[in-house]
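Ligand: zinc ion. Inputs:
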Amino acid sequence: MFTDVAETVASHLDTAQSLTVITGAGVSAPSGVPTFRGPQGLWKNHRPEQLATPEAFASDPEMVWEWYNWRRELVAECQPNAAHRILAKWSSAAIPATIITQNVDGLHERAGTTGVIRFHGSIWELRCWKECDAGVIAWRNTAVPLDPLPPRCPYCNELARPGVVWFGESIPTDVLTKSLQATRCDVFLTIGTSAVVHPAASLLHSAKQHGAFTSEINLEGTPSSGDVDLAIQGSADTVLVEIDRLRSK
Ligand code: BV8
Ligand code: ZN
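Predicted complex:
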């Protein structure tokens, strides 16, 4: 059903000297991780801006930590899918792909992808809410379930917060710089994202300005669909398997 468009992407990949991919929740959907804005989405009984914000955490840290603890438990039971595996393979190819992800679930890393640029951080990292000297640097915590809940900063014993970027918070400068640098590429793929969250969604426009061939792989149309050279409607895992099959190297 999409072999011809997959062939077009595969042929661009065969001649590309650099490839950058940005992924969203749709890449983890086949693994059973709910998307953010889908029917059974992670936000269904909350508006995104309500829950994933510093204000929500300040007013009710227990409620926000209940939500993250639930997501961590859910993700811990999920396995990477073929989309993660193909991207992991491409990240260690002769011409390695750069994988930028909006996802905080860690499934790209679990699939073996090297050098993942985590645009919105990770639910497997915590930071000190009071930003004490030692605790301002995120630390890894993979405990499922979290105990105690909410978790404390090991350095000052104040509240810990999830190591993610919330709405109204800036993307860390080094992450933004690395991501913008990665948009200087021959091929830019945006996969499994509704392209409504900025500045992540604007990386596509930066890639276009640098002359990249751009393609979107998504189950449904998005605000980016009209901006890419080739929009492919399909599931990230099956489309990536087809493109990988058609690549000659
Ligand atoms: C910033 C981490 C500067 C936490 C997330 C008003 C006030 C303040 C800010 C704003 C404002 N108005 C606009 C903004 C900017 C705001 C923004 O973009 N808002 C949007 C909602 C309008 N952005 C920010 O605040 C950013 N910071 O701008 O800093 C600043 C500073 C101060 C004041 C102003 C500006 C920070 C944004 C980061 C927010 N953090 N997550 C957590 O995860 O808990 S965002 C959240 O959405 C997730 O990270 C997620 O990754 C991201 C994007 O969602 P998607 O991944 O696209 O998921 P979604 O469900 O939406 O779509 C999935 C798609 O997959 C669907 O299209 C579906 O069809 C498709 N799909 C499903 N299954 C499959 C599939 N595709 C393929 N195959 C399948 N099988
Ligand atoms: Zn601290």
